[in-house]
Amino acid sequence: MPVVVRLLGPLEAEVDGVRVDLGPPQQRALLALLALHVGKAVRLSAIEEALWRDELPPSATKVVQTYVSRLRKALGADAIRLVGKGYVLDSHVEVDARAFRELFGEGLYREALALWRGHALADVPTLEAEAEQLNELRVTAFEERFDAELEHGAHPGLVAELDGLVAEHPTRERLLAQLVLALYRSGRQADALAVYRNGRDALVEELGLEPGVELRDLERRILRQDPDLLNERPSPIAEERMPPLERGQRRLRRRTVLPVAAVVVAAAAAVISSIALGHAKAAAVVPIRANTLLALDPRTNTFVRSIPIARDAAGLDATADALWIASERDSTVSRLDLGSYRLTTIGRPHPIAFLTHDDRGNIYASGWDFPYVWQIDPRTVRAVHTYRVRTRALGLSVGGGSLWVVDRLANSVTRIDLAEHRVAETIKVGINPLASAFGYGALWVANGDSGTIAVLRPGAPKPILVRGIPSPFGISAGAGGVWVASNGTHAVYRIDPDTHAKVGGPIDLGTPTDFLFGVSAGQHGVWAIEDHHIVRIDPATDEVVIRIPFPRGTEPKAVVSTGKFVWVTVGNPKDDL
Fold it and tell me: Which string of DSSP letters, residue by residue, matches 516-563?
């Protein structure tokens, strides 16, 4: 019996053409999550993370089992299967989002867009990020369709449709350029220039950005009434940048304006389908330069903002209203206000590489080569207290009312009681501890030379050791697991926070010549930080979905997620010497 699940609008399911009741909101969210990854197993931990976020009930696993049982009764016993420690929606189930992606890949944009009934997953708020990725790809499909139709002279009939989409997405330069071009080719030069000016104002007001080179060039060509603009074809350079499509035979897509968007299309499609497509470049909305802080839009893997910062900024931490940036080379700590983007900087006598914060917003900073941790008042951006450990204060974490400091040469962790402002105890963890993360009620410490992860729960007399991860260098807790960056295998490992067992095998990053600096888990996925790339992992499938290379003379130093962006600090490799 045919089973159909529709995600491109309010969630719906049909069996033999009859609509079925999908139950309460969380049960519906579970089906939507499985349908997003149809044919692939979604881990139980990822399901629980999606359904309950940070308020996981003790009975979560049993509740998920109950939801699965009810969905099987509604859709058929074989529709959902248990695979290992997760569930999979059978690949024979028809999912409109999968069909949309396939049609998109074949260049059949009108057919792909006809599948939509409104905003994706409009009634499943718990999957907002996943819905935004689908909505993003829908707009890209419109852009692709408009390019093709503009090329074939359909400009007068596109103006109204483009006008509505530009009003909905005022900072999308490709849509704006298409509307300007359609107006100009329809004999409405004054309207085209007015739309350009309004679009420029929106970019400056909302993003603090001037229009890109291609859009500015379009305005100049309209002003001088360039005759070639009425029948423009993509340049050979633009053609080389376009990915091939499969439709009977391989052929190149054509562009009218903004050819750089081809990279965005490939990146967005990779994220949605959770398939690694090799190396993908972030679209150059802003350039990648050393000594900057970049804001990446996780819906498109596009850098959309660049802010100058100090050199060699290896420390990065996010609080509710600010980003904190530590510079080793310049020995500074800076606060970036996320509302005004105003940067406040203080200097310290020693290089700083590690940052964390407590629930009051107090910032704690330390460096590689000194035994000190500085507490910084977030209101004054001034150091107000100093703590000392035995040898070298490295990785910092806060949890359970304590500040946990990795003491590298002592092969231990120092616990500082934040209520009493004193060193409470020192606990041996392993050889050459380098980094730590607090999450799921425990401290997790990467012991570089022991090949172990020490799991230390507050009040426990000694840590539990997770073995078999060669040369762990970075660690992060979140996104349904504890994630470890291993330089021994150049891979990322996932640890189940409840059983302390490794989940699956190592996740190969596909860039073996790079040094693996660390890993950062957050609401926009799991990001591995390397010499020349940042790599995104989908925590629902443990698969690499995108690799973003950095140009020569730059390297990513640290990554952190906030509500809207993924932030990346960029350094110069020479500053490491």
Answer: EEEEEEETTEEEEEESSEEEEEETTTTEEEEEEE--TT-EEEEEEE-S
Q: Which domains does the chain have, with CATH numbers?
A: 3-99 (1.10.10.10), 125-273 (1.25.40.10), 295-572 (2.130.10.10)
pLDDT for 266 equals: 37
Question: Per-residue b/e over 269-307, b at no fewer than 16 CB within 10 Å?
Answer: bbbbbbebbeebbbbebbebebbbbbbbbbbbbbbbbbb
DSSP state, 303?
A: E
Torsional sign, CA 543, 549, 553, 557: negative
Count each helix (H run) and each strand (E run) in the chain, helices first.
12, 37
Q: Distance between CA atoms of 252 and 432, rounded to whole angstroms?
A: 52
Share of the chain residues as helix, strand and coil, in percent rounded to the nearest 5: 30, 35, 40
User: Tens digits of per-residue pLDDT, 180-231?
Assistant: 999 998 889 999 999 999 999 888 887 777 888 888 889 999 998 888 787 6
- For residue 161, what are the CA distances in angstroms to 164, 175, 198, 202, 284? 5, 11, 17, 19, 27
**Residues 323 and 312 sit within 8 Å (Cβ to Cβ):** no
Length of the chain equals 577
Q: d(Cα 393, Cα 409) in Å, to the nearest integer?
A: 9
- Sign of the alpha-carbon torsion through 118, 121, 126, 127: negative
CA–CA separation, 536 and 317 (whole Å): 19
Segment 322-366, tens digit of pLDDT = 999 998 888 888 899 888 888 888 865 567 788 999 988 899 999
